[in-house]
Amino acid sequence: MSIQEQQTAETVLRDGLKNLWYPICPSGFVGRNPVSMRRLGKKLVLWRDTDGKVHALEDHCPHRGAPLSKGIVLGDRIACGYHGVQIRADGVVTSVPGSPGCKLEGSRAVHAFHTTEANGAIWLYNAECNIEEAPPLRLPEALTSDAYSSFLCYTEWKGDYRYVLDNVMDPMHGTYLHKQSHSMALGNQAASFRVRDTETGFVFEKEGQRDVNFDWTEWADTGMHWMRLEIPYPKTGGPGGNFIIIGSYTPITSELAAVFHWRCRRLQGWQRDTWRFLYKNRLEARHWAVLEQDREMLEDMEPDANRREHLYQHDMGIVKLRRHLKGLAQAQLDKAAQ
């Protein structure tokens, strides 16, 4: 990548903004053996130590550039399979067996990343450089409060992750694309929208219609970027309040996105148990069918579709979000240039 390309907001957004938490993969993807995966414009290696804690490094040995994911896990260290160079989870080279005492030993030569686990996912803090501590992960209430129950839905979609952001920031598509859904068949087929600011972001909502269809989307920044929407359930959806979806999206490459949706409801006691049983045995398949409609639509869009648009009032939320993200990217570039 050239210096000129690095200095564009588009490139920053393509690979993901820095100094944010991102969901990387479901927890079950990583075990004791090293796993290589591409995320956020990087090739990473992840593994668990003997206590089950997840560690992440750039998948690049500082000696000759061999993939560390082909190496051997030694607790909180990983030994490169090419020449045995050992790198600790904080990126420090602890041993060079082929040349003991060389300058590489003791140097912090590998980009290390802080990780944590929550709600069935592994999260990674996308720091610009090695840092001693990462800020705490601040999730939305529906993923932290005991008053809610949730299921993680993970998938990967072909295309830029920003098309997924646009899709969720577009409540009106539910009225058309998902009109055969058991929960999105009602409501007006025309609507006016407004933007309402919040302490952590904004809500894009239909005027005069609430709790009828997919009527609003919230976007928030709490040290991670997340989106929230609610869809009213018919009585056949079981006990509890509206069906809540929390979404967070991570670039794998410019042509592939990691898509995380937590499907939530506010309920407790026997209602929680009833809904969880009903979800796994009846509702989950219906929700996957709705998600497949989104996937098929987005994957069939041309990569430059967002450069040949004719936007109108329904798209105010998309425009606001795109401008905000571009502003964050430019601020990141300006800070790096200081």
Order of strands, main sheet, comes to 12-18-17-16-15-14-13
CA-atom Rg in angstroms: 22 Å
Q: Which regions contain 5 or more consecutive residues with pLDDT less than 50?
A: 1-5
Helix-residue proportion: 10-25%
Average of pLDDT: 91
Number of continuous helical runs: 6
As a percent range, the share of strand residues is 25-35%
Name of the top-level CATH class of the largest domain: Alpha Beta
Instruction: Please state the second-level CATH architecture of the largest domain.
Output: Alpha-Beta Complex
Structural class: alpha+beta
For CATH, the homologous superfamily of the largest domain is named as Naphthalene 1,2-dioxygenase Alpha Subunit, Chain A, domain 1
Count the strands?
Answer: 18
Largest sheet: 7 strands, antiparallel
The name of the CATH topology of the largest domain is Naphthalene 1,2-dioxygenase Alpha Subunit, Chain A, domain 1
**Succession of helices and strands:** HHEEEEEEEEEEEEHHEEEEEEHH
Describe the structure.
One of its GO terms (molecular function) is dioxygenase activity. Residues 21-124 form the Rieske domain. It holds the Pfam family Rieske. It comes from Paraburkholderia pallida. This is Aromatic ring-hydroxylating dioxygenase subunit alpha. By secondary structure, the chain is α+β, with helices and mostly antiparallel strands. The protein folds into two domains: 18-125, 3-layer Sandwich (Rieske Iron-sulfur Protein); 142-328, Naphthalene 1,2-dioxygenase Alpha Subunit, Chain A, domain 1 (Alpha-Beta Complex), CATH 3.90.380.10. It has helices spanning 3-6, 9-15, 161-168, 173-177, 269-299, 316-337; strands at 21-26, 35-39, 42-48, 54-58, 72-74, 77-79, 86-88, 93-95, 112-113, 115-118, 121-125, 148-158, 193-197, 201-206, 216-221, 225-231, 243-253, 256-266. The strands form four sheets. The chain has a seven-stranded antiparallel β-sheet with strand order 12-18-17-16-15-14-13, with helices on one face. Strands 2-3-4-9 form a four-stranded antiparallel β-sheet, with no helix packed on it. Strand 17 (243-253) and strand 18 form a beta hairpin. Helix 2 packs across helix 6. The longest helix is centred in the C-terminal third of the chain and has 31 residues, at 269-299. The chain is globular, with a radius of gyration of 22 Å. The two termini are 21 Å apart.
